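Re: that chain you flagged

S.,

Sorry for the slow reply, it's been a week of failed gels. I finally had a moment to sit down with the sequence you sent. For the record, here it is as I used it:
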Amino acid sequence: MAEGSDTTLTAEIKSFAAGHGGAKAVIEYVGKRGARIVLVGQDGEWTDQFAPQGTDAARKACATAGVEVENEWERELMEQMRPSNDLWRSMSRRTMAR
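Prediction finished late last night. Pasting the structure tokens below so you have them in one place:
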């Protein structure tokens, strides 16, 4: 399979959702580069995927994988996210470096 193909993207989304008790997605337009898919699992874990083909391909991959797409960042979804300790450490380094 080609890197970034629709099939690979759908499989990765489906795999994440299966491993985290289901998931919801938010798709962010990244210009000509494509679209970022942020997946939030029911257990609070999250990850992101990239769809170089754009937002339509990202929505199609989520639909095929059975993952609901939120239209925007809702408060409930953000509260569900549980940042990892590594993320907190990396954010603190950036703040302290300023």
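What I noticed first: Helices lie at 6-19, 55-65, 75-80, 85-96.

Talk soon,
D.
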